[in-house]
Design brief:
Blueprint lengths: L6 H21 L7 H8 L3 H7 L3 H24 L6 H18 L1 H11 L5 H28 L8 H23 L9 H19 L11 H8 L5
Helix pairs in contact: 1-2, 1-4, 4-5, 4-7, 5-7, 7-8, 8-9
Length: about 230
């Protein structure tokens, strides 16, 4: 008789491994994390672990995919809302990403020291690639719609969507480097404004929009979240 698999229980156990791995990555770094550490965190046997993941690298891939899919699920309703104009869809996506960063700021402050350490270089690369991939999938249809409606002037919406996704991730990395990385030199609000303005200008060039017609992020809200200049 074939064995019946409890799908819900299987998914719960798998997520327990992912949750434990994510905590360890944030607290000590991926390179310093071992499979045995994950087993200790979950109280699972080695055999149980290998039932779900063939190796530590596969566990990392699953953690990254779950995180990136979560971001995509958050943004998809905005990017798919045909009641919004293409420009408002883009603004909504950028605003939600900015707001998400604000909601997670307390956690970021506690983990970024490890996150930006050498022990998490591979993790950061994987996250970057996965997030750009999800963002490109969301932004490309928005760009294509804007082209059809005469809002954007773009010869290749698919490539433009990928460029926008990459640029948005570059912006997030640049702001994180300036605002949240422990030990970094405090910067003036004007420097943050210049970073955002430069990326907004690039967005306008890519989409064929007039100068000053859009803004990627509410700079005032971002500075408030980051607490720039507070002693």
């Amino acid at each position: 008789m074939a064995r019946t698999v409890d799908v819900a229980a299987h998914e719960r156990r798998r997520n327990e491994f992912l949750d434990a791995a994510q905590r360890l990555i944030e607290s000590r770094g991926y390179e310093r994390m071992s499979v045995q550490d994950v087993l200790h965190e979950t109280g699972a046997s080695r055999g149980a672990f290998y039932h779900y993941f063939q190796a530590k690298q596969e566990l990392l891939s699953a953690v990254v995919d779950r995180f990136a899919d979560g971001i995509a699920a958050l943004l998809e309703p905005i990017a798919a809302d045909s009641a919004l104009s293409p420009m408002d869809q883009l603004r909504g996506v950028f605003a939600e990403l900015s707001a998400r960063g604000g909601r997670e700021n307390d956690e970021l402050r506690a983990t970024l020291g490890v996150w930006y350490s050498d022990s998490n270089v591979l993790v950061r690369q994987r996250f970057r690639t996965a997030i750009i991939d999800r963002l490109a999938r969301l932004l490309t249809p928005v760009v294509a719609r804007g082209v059809r409606e005469g809002v954007f002037t773009v010869p290749d919406p698919e490539q433009a969507g990928l460029i926008l996704a990459t640029m948005l991730q570059d912006l997030n990395d640049a702001l994180a480097d300036q605002l949240f990385v422990p030990g970094s030199t405090p910067i003036a609000p004007s420097a943050v404004e210049h970073i955002v303005a430069a990326h907004s200008w690039a967005l306008e060039r890519i989409l064929g929009l007039p100068d000053g017609s859009t803004a990627l992020i509410n700079t005032s809200a971002l500075l408030s979240v980051a607490d720039v200049g507070r002693s």
